[in-house]
Fold:
Amino acid sequence: MKKKVGVLVSGRGSNLQALLDAAKDPAFPAEIALVISNIPDVFALERAAKAGVPTQVIPHKGFPSRETFDAAMDAALRDAGVDFVCLAGFMRLLTKSFVEGWQGRMINIHPSLLPSFKGLHTHERAIEAGVKLHGCSVHLVTPELDDGPLLVQAAVPVLATDTPDTLAARVLEQEHKAYPLALKLLAEGKVTVDGVRAVVDAPGGGALVNPQ
Ligand code: GAR
Structure:
């Protein structure tokens, strides 16, 4: 039986779209059962509705604390019978207790080759640092921001002519491959965690390389 996935979003939802598209394949081991946005009227909600996936808006601004906001999301995910949670451009910090409640079952996509460039403005910072390779990472979520065992990483070259926007576009293309792959591996039970490392039973062990 397919695993049920809840996706948390805050915006455009192109990674959500990549997951929705992947899940259309009858052989994909997971289905998107619920999409939750903390921001009303974002495009990600339209994408979910178009795919026939139930959506909920849980506006963080309506809650007195992070704890109560996270508890509302937790209840919605559990009511929907979700097995795994994907953060897809979800731009809120999560409380330790929420994260611990989904330990080993919640993943995030981040637009850098972690542990480099945690946080925001990753493409600007990669260009400023002069790195030759940049990319994206899908990792299990732990209470520390942009930390946690790495499942899949995809690398792209940084070109001398790159602006943050051109680099972001090249990375985003890889995000849309890396995220469905990571969810597939997790839902198929091909990920085991050994301390801070995830051991991924897949060709290449979860590495996607895209030299151009
Ligand atoms: C993506 O690039 C994702 O990696 C990034 O936000 C963008 C969301 O785009 N996530 C983070 O920065 C999380 N710290 P999308 O809404 O089109 O998927």
Observations:
- Residues 11-15, 88-89, 109-111, 172, 175 surround glycinamide ribonucleotide (CB under 6 Å).
- Strands lie at 3-9, 30-37, 55-57, 84-87, 106-110, 133-140, 150-157, 191-194, 197-200, 207-209.
- The chain has six helices and ten strands.
- The mean pLDDT is 97.
